[in-house]
Every structure is written in C-alpha cells, then in structure tokens.
Design brief:
Number of domains: 1
Domain Pirin N-terminal: 26-79
CATH superfamily: Jelly Rolls
Strand content: over 45%
Number of strands: 17
CATH class: Mainly Beta
Structural class: mainly beta
Mean pLDDT: 89
Pfam families: Pirin
Family: Belongs to the pirin family.
Low-confidence stretches: 218-235
InterPro entries: Pirin (IPR012093), Pirin_N_dom (IPR003829), RmlC-like_jellyroll (IPR014710), RmlC_Cupin_sf (IPR011051)
CATH architecture: Sandwich
Number of helices: 0
Order of helices and strands: EEEEEEEEEEEEEEEEE
Protein name: Pirin domain-containing protein
CATH topology: Jelly Rolls
Length: 235
C-alpha cells in the first residue's frame, strides 16, 4: 500500500465502465482475481468457460472468483447502454478453484447500508477479508457502517449524487479513499453509493491478472483504483 502498490491493501482497482448497445467484450481470461460487478443500467449477457449463460442487471449482481483459470465474455443486450462498476479484489491465496456467483437484489432504497458481498454471511461470497455495501442516501448526515475488524481501508464510489466526506466534496463517478477514522459522510444531494472495505493487514495474493500490483511492471506508476471518470482519493 503506497507508492510501491497500484492498489490499496486487497483492493486491486475499481473501474466504472460504459458500453453502448451491441457491444461485445469477447472471451478473455482472468486469473487470481475476485471481481464484483454492480450494474447501474442496462443488461449484460455473461458467458463463461464453465458453461454459464446468465444475465446481470441493476437487480442481479455477479461475482467472478476466477481462481487458477477462468474465461468469460460479455454482451450488451437490448437498446439501452450499460453503466457498471467493477471492484477487482485480490484473493487470500493463489490458484483457488474457479467459480462464479449471481444474486438477485432489489433496487437500492433509502435504508441503512446493505451488505452485498463479504467472506461470509452475505449474498455473494468473496475469498478475501472484504465487505461491499451499497446505500441510497437522502440529503443529510449518515453514519458509515461500523467495523470491529481492526485496521481497515475503505473506498467510496459515488454512483450518483453529491457527497462530502473529510472536508472534501465528491460527485457522480468519483472514487475516493476514506479515512479509517471517518465515522460519517454528508449527502449534499440524494446519492447512490458503493462502499468497499478491506482488512488492512490480512495477507493476500498480489499478482492476479487484473487485480495485481502494476507498479513494478510499468515504468510510470498508474493512479490507484482507476475509474473511467474523475477519480480522486481523499484521506
């Protein structure tokens, strides 16, 4: 974590993607990555090397636990473009058995933080000590989820709306590191957010195909946790 790592603990990167109707991401590999996909709009057809043919959408989540070897293809269905966020995590160890999971959800509502994926006791299972929550926040101050797991790192993805946290403001498409000392955030406008929390000290495999540390393999270090729009990291 820091100048020698392109990620943040077991959080390899976070991507915001936008694809037009008819777009196809042809069959491609993943290896030693835990990939959580959250679709905001549109529908994606998922096909993979394990024989799955499934749709994911704003009411259907997906986690790819790629393990030792996994390939998949994605096709944008229908007439609507797809906006999606992909959280690429680093697994606890290398070359686990590959698997893929899907979970039905309801559209996010103005309720307390909803746990979507974790190592256990969640709709989708991650093979690393991490927690993914979403929430719809009305205007006002909101407590962050409480954690009793020791040292943590957190990243907030603003999917819609305006947020202020730690004295800084963030808008739709922004991705920001959140201090482990922060207790709350303020919604300046109604907002939909995704919160990624990871154990800061647990060991993990750092050389996944998509989640791995890229600093040592590129002459110019990338910005951590890349997004396709503004990406800023407040402490």
């Amino acid at each position: 974590m820091g100048p020698d790592d392109s990620g943040l603990a077991s959080i390899g990167k976070i991507e915001r993607t936008y694809a037009l109707p008819g777009f196809v991401a042809s069959m491609h590999p993943h290896r030693n990555d835990e990939i959580f996909s959250y679709v905001r709009s549109g529908t994606i057809l998922h096909l993979d090397s394990m024989g799955h043919e499934e749709k994911i959408s704003s009411t259907r989540l997906r986690v790819i636990n790629s393990g030792a070897a996994f390939q998949h293809e994605e096709r944008v269905l229908g007439r609507d473009p797809v906006e999606a966020f992909h959280v690429v995590l680093r697994p606890e160890c290398a070359d686990l058995a590959p698997m893929v999971q899907f979970a039905e959800i309801t559209a996010v509502q103005p309720k307390p933080w909803r746990l979507l994926a974790a190592r256990n006791r969640a709709p989708l299972i991650l093979r690393v000590k991490a927690w993914l929550h979403d929430a719809h926040l009305e205007v006002g101050t909101h407590l962050l989820p409480a954690h009793t797991n020791g040292s943590i790192v957190r990243v907030l993805v603003v999917m819609n709306g305006d947020i202020r946290i730690g004295g800084r403001s963030f808008q739709k498409g922004d991705i920001a590191a959140v201090s482990d000392q922060a207790l709350s955030l303020i919604a300046i406008k109604p907002a939909d957010v995704l919160l990624v929390t990871a154990d800061a000290v647990e060991s993990f495999f750092a050389n996944g195909l998509s989640s791995g540390n890229t600093v040592l393999t590129k002459s110019k270090p990338p910005v951590p946790l890349l997004g396709t729009s503004r990406s800023r990291f407040g402490g």
